[in-house]
Design brief:
Elements: E1 10-17, H1 21-32, E2 37-41, H2 47-52, H3 54-72, H4 83-93, H5 103-108, E3 112-120, E4 125-130, E5 135-146, E6 150-152, H6 168-173, E7 180-184, H7 188-199, E8 203-208, H8 219-231, E9 235-238, E10 242-248, E11 253-258, E12 263-266, E13 268-271, E14 275-277, E15 302-303, E16 306-311, H9 322-336, E17 351-354, E18 359-364, H10 367-372, E19 377-383, E20 400-406, E21 411-419, H11 426-434, H12 439-442, H13 457-466
The structure holds flavin-adenine dinucleotide and nicotinamide-adenine-dinucleotide.
Length: 467
């Protein structure tokens, strides 16, 4: 028996599999450090985020949010949402699903891009099947970085998979407004897409099996987002289980059967029920790992037992957010470059933004997760709409802030902002939480007048009252 491995067709220092945001940052930073890098992508350079997730979804949401804001501001008139123009702008944002604008960047960085499907083939080896079916065996001298991302997970509702429901891919790139849209799942994708397509006139029904929408956030945030969706005509069926799905060919509709026996029908059924990592056919078994699961990593993004292998972004199942994947890429690159003590994950809890109306922007603990973690906390609730700044932004809307303070350490361990356009609020809180900045120090900083940031003064009051 011949046990010698075949000679690789190519060698390089590092191989990055997947050119989504995590893989792009990894490849760019590796090449920037003079590390010879091959980047392999089977579809579009930019990944799910650029073409089927973050970017198109925000392009669909922003005009509606802007129209809502102009309606709150006296002195602006004649504003209405133009669906066709919004969809056209979305197409611009996703470059009509053409990734050629990304390519000059790849070239400038000196990254070699190979288009094809990659899979591991033992230690530091990667086999690529090109679009023409040709196979290439690559070997990395230093490291292989898995950045293969995730796809929509289809829950085990009988008949659902066979129905071929829409996922984030179809809903973010749709060119027509479905008359009726049925959404399975009231997490982040579900509520954002309900918001967007209801604003274009679709009759939206959302079915969530859990007790509330966006259940990882403060209850108050769930309530406000639910209110916002209902106000836009979205029918919410929360705490409801789907027991079957089928296609009604005569009516050209998808039918979802609920536990009660009731049937819901729509021209389009969207599944927004979480994600599954793209690790099923990645050759993980060739390096002793189980295929189909998130790839477990340590805080250096290294796969335990394989010190040459890294997994970043959605495929390690840690935090399914673009900015976290990009941060993890930097952590991995520092390790590969030999800066062992440089960056270690987690650096701080990830900020989270949900781009509904109202928006939810949060970081760190909610009150519930802090208490579950055994922290003694005080909760400081404040109304953003009571600030002078709210006379000019989000006027007339209830807007909330909740600060979760560790009473022993006197530091902020979580913050949530709910209101129109609060996304930009969260980074200050993220820095305060990650840096464990004492609340007494935060209290020494003035908040600019007249902005809604004066809501932080409530934390100042807490500091003074408890000093
Ligand atoms: C509708 C929606 C909206 C979202 N909005 C936001 C948002 O606003 N903000 C935010 O932070 N996050 C958002 N997310 C989450 C975000 O999209 C992901 O966290 C992010 O895309 C993960 O980046 P990644 O690089 O790990 O993977 P991906 O973006 O999934 O990229 C992985 C890449 O790897 C390629 N690939 C996979 N397998 C192989 C293989 N075997 N060989 C070669 N190439 C391969 C894929 O083709 C893909 O291009 C959203 C998600 C969804 C679904
Ligand atoms: N603005 C953003 O940053 C943004 C936007 C979209 C997605 N994302 C990321 O993408 C990830 C995936 O989003 P997602 O919404 O698909 O997942 P999710 O985990 O946020 O929510 C899934 C929801 O589906 C529900 N669900 C599961 N099975 C169900 C069933 N059979 N019937 C009814 N409901 C069911 C769950 O209870 C949950 O509420 C998120 O975790 C988030 O990290 C981020």
């Amino acid at each position: 028996m011949n046990t010698t491995s075949p000679t690789p067709d190519r060698t390089c220092d590092a191989i990055v599999i997947g050119a989504g945001p995590a893989g792009e940052v990894a490849a760019g930073k590796l090449a920037g450090r003079g590390i010879e890098t091959i980047l392999i992508e089977r579809e579009l350079v930019g990944g799910e985020c650029a073409f089927y997730a973050c970017m198109p979804s925000k392009a669909l949401l922003r005009p509606g949010a802007l129209v809502a804001e102009t309606k709150r501001v006296a002195g602006v008139s004649d504003t209405s949402l133009e669906t066709i123009a919004t969809l056209r702008r979305r197409d611009e944002v996703i470059h009509d699903l053409d990734d050629s604008t990304q390519l000059p960047w790849v070239e400038e960085k000196g990254i070699e891009l190979i288009r094809g499907v990659a899979r591991l083939d033992g230690e530091r080896r990667v086999r690529v099947t090109g679009r023409d079916g040709e196979e290439l065996l690559l070997e990395a001298r230093r490291a292989v970085v898995l950045a293969v991302g995730s796809g929509a997970s289809i829950p085990p509702v009988p008949g659902l998979r066979e129905l071929q429901p829409w996922t984030n891919r179809e809903i973010t790139t749709a060119r027509q407004v479905p008359p009726r849209l049925l959404i399975l799942g009231g997490g982040v994708v579900g509520v954002e897409m309900a918001q967007a397509w209801a604003s274009f006139g679709a009759q939206v029904t959302l079915v969530e099996v859990g007790e509330r929408l966006i259940a990882q956030e403060e209850e108050l945030a769930s309530e406000r987002v639910a209110d916002g969706l209902r106000a836009r005509g979205v029918e919410l069926r929360v705490g409801v289980r789907a027991t079957g799905a089928r296609r009604d060919a005569a009516e050209a509709t998808s039918v979802l059967t609920l536990e009660s026996g009731e049937e819901l029908r729509a021209e389009v059924l969207l599944v927004a029920a979480g994600r599954a990592p793209h690790t099923g056919a990645l050759g993980l078994e060739t390096v002793g790992l189980e295929p189909g699961r998130a790839v477990e990593v340590d805080d250096r993004m290294r796969v335990p037992g394989n010190d040459w292998l890294y997994a970043i972004g959605d495929c390690n199942g840690r935090e399914l957010l673009t900015h976290q994947g990009k941060l993890q890429a930097r952590v991995a690159v520092a390790q590969i470059a030999g800066q062992e003590s440089a960056r270690v994950h987690p650096i701080g809890p990830p900020p989270r933004v949900i781009f509904t109306e109202p928006q939810v922007a949060a970081v760190g603990h909610t009150e519930a997760t802090a208490r579950r973690a055994g922290l003694a906390v005080d909760v400081v609730d404040a109304r953003i709409d009571h600030t002078a700044g709210a006379s000019f932004a989000g006027k007339g809307e209830q807007q909330h802030a909740r600060f979760v303070v560790d009473t022993a350490a006197r530091t902020l361990v979580g913050a949530t902002f709910v209101g129109p356009d609060v996304a930009e609020f969260v980074h200050a809180a993220a820095i305060a939480v990650a840096g464990a900045v004492p609340v007494d120090r935060i209290a020494q900083v003035a908040a600019p007048f007249p902005t809604r940031s004066e809501v932080w003064l409530e934390l100042t009051d807490w500091a003074e009252q408890t000093a």
